[in-house]
Amino acid sequence: MHLTGKQKRHLRAQAHHLNPIFQVGKDGVNDNMINQIAETLEKRELIKVSILQNCFEDKQDIADELSEGTGATVVQVIGHTIVLYKESKENKQIELP
């Protein structure tokens, strides 16, 4: 799914108040983490993932890996935080402009 600039701005504003739910550590991204994030995205649509200091992978690579594995769109990578969005099939809560 490709988001326009206006849609990304809207999602960034909504994500501002969220706390990161998942953390990527020194082991990086694994299949179990991807499955859990995919399930959470189905329930919440918009989540933050935190990258810990001991993670040696590039944060953009992690964002791409999570996006690819879950089918989500990377809204933003800022500092050590990734914001992911995926439209829910059953729990649609966020209306994009």
UniProtKB/TrEMBL annotation:
InterPro entries: RNA-binding_CRM, RNA-binding_domain, RNA-binding_YhbY, YhbY-like_sf. SUPFAM superfamilies: YhbY-like. Coiled coil: none annotated. Signal peptide: none annotated. It comes from the Bacteria. This is RNA-binding protein YqeI. GO terms for molecular function: RNA binding. Keywords: RNA-binding. Residues 1-97 form the CRM domain. Pfam families: CRS1_YhbY.
